[in-house]
Design brief:
single chain, 9 strands, about 375 residues
Length: about 375
């Protein structure tokens, strides 16, 4: 397999590693999973004595352990049903591609990245789906200067991430599959069914090497969704990632990711903020479900998704406020503005929903008085 590091651009002095002065320079703001968790992957590889599919760096069991953690040296990357991860990993052992489906913020991208990192050691073979994604992003393009000068040739061909994954026997990732135009989506059919990518201009084809597969993500909440054709859908095994099953699970996810992001952003240490995290999670879950935790009061839901990812963002922003503009402790006022911004996406309808929830639910909770005042002022 081609080493991904060979394809990286040279770094300017001080960009990473050692700078011109020989002192350590700043690291990547958001390291790839295979870099951030290199020690865990190396530990699993060294102790993994189970059979590994061709082209895989770990056995399927070790990949699941990497995702869910072992309670000791391997940290959990996903908090949720083990069976879902087992189904996802076993799908990638077969000739069927994997489609991770769910509402926004259910860790689809996060899971796909870690799957690719654990299986191939490379999570960067990525196509980002948008309404403007062209077929060349999935198949291949051309260096037009060389094409005009030399005509069609291998040197003039520009492989897509999917083509590179086929050539090296790696996992390719395709984000937001349903946002890609339908005619472009169908470029995947031959790749997934025949495991070949024809290049008619050169009278040749690229055959997928063993270990190749594709992980796609999709949700049906956003506007601009293009339904998958039945022919394409048959070539995927779909795994639906649910929202966290319980408030405790969601609090655990938010707390862990906030701690990781705080370290990567070099935020000053802020004392434990579990109380505020639980409040934000409670607000999001109640508005998302349209019902209070005790089941006694029905609520209107806002237009936004109020995902776990948004809860992480609200808390991280609150920690930054507390660290840089407060007393170093996370207070309700530090999260109030962020939570209002997360809930009120539509200034007309969502404002009504939020005010009603604030006055009928939060105001009546005696231990939430400080939060109520901060949210009302925000």
């Amino acid at each position: 397999m081609t080493d991904r590091t060979e394809q990286r651009l040279p770094q300017a002095p001080g960009d990473a590693g050692e700078g011109a002065s020989g002192k350590p320079g700043p690291t990547a703001l958001r390291p790839h999973a295979e870099d951030q968790y290199a020690d865990e992957l190396a530990l699993l590889a060294a102790t993994d004595d189970r059979p590994r599919p061709p082209g895989w760096r770990l056995s399927p069991q070790a990949v699941v352990t990497y995702l869910l953690g072992d309670g000791a040296k391997i940290t959990p990357k996903y908090v949720g049903p083990r069976r879902l991860m087992e189904v996802a990993v076993s799908t990638l052992v077969t000739d069927r591609a994997l489609l991770l489906l769910g509402v926004p913020g259910t860790a689809k991208t996060w899971v796909s990245e870690h799957l690719a990192a654990a299986i191939s050691g490379d999570s960067t073979l990525l196509v980002q789906g948008t309404a403007g994604t062209a077929e060349e992003a999935i198949r291949y393009g051309w260096n037009y200067a060389r094409l005009l000068a030399e005509g069609p040739s291998e040197a003039a061909l520009t492989p897509s991430p999917v083509m590179r994954a086929m050539q090296t026997g790696a996992i390719a990732r395709l984000e937001e599959l349903t946002r890609i135009p339908s005619d472009v989506q169908d470029a995947l059919i031959t790749i997934l069914s025949e495991k070949t990518l024809p290049v008619p201009e050169l009278n040749t084809e690229v055959q997928a090497q063993r270990g190749f597969n594709l992980i796609a993500t999709a949700n049906d909440r956003d506007r601009g969704v293009n339904e998958l054709s039945s022919a394409l859908r048959r070539r995927f095994n779909t795994v639906v990632l649910p929202v966290p099953a319980s408030a405790d699970d969601e609090v655990e996810i938010v707390a862990r990711r906030v701690a990781q992001m705080g370290r990567s952003l070099d935020l000053p240490e802020v004392p434990a903020a579990l109380e505020e995290i639980r409040r934000v999670v409670t607000v999001f879950r109640e508005l998302r479900s349209g019902m209070t935790e005790d089941g006694r009061t029905k609520l209107k839901s806002p237009t936004g998704t109020l995902s776990t990812a948004e809860a992480i963002s609200v808390i991280t922003n609150g920690l930054a406020l507390a660290a840089h503009f407060g007393d170093g402790t996370l207070h309700p006022g530090d999260v109030a503005a962020g939570i209002v911004g997360a809930v009120v996406k539509d200034p007309v309808s969502d404002s009504v929903v939020w005010r009603e929830y604030l006055e009928t639910v939060i105001r009546e909770r005696s231990d939430w008085r400080d939060f109520y005042r901060a949210a009302r002022d925000a």
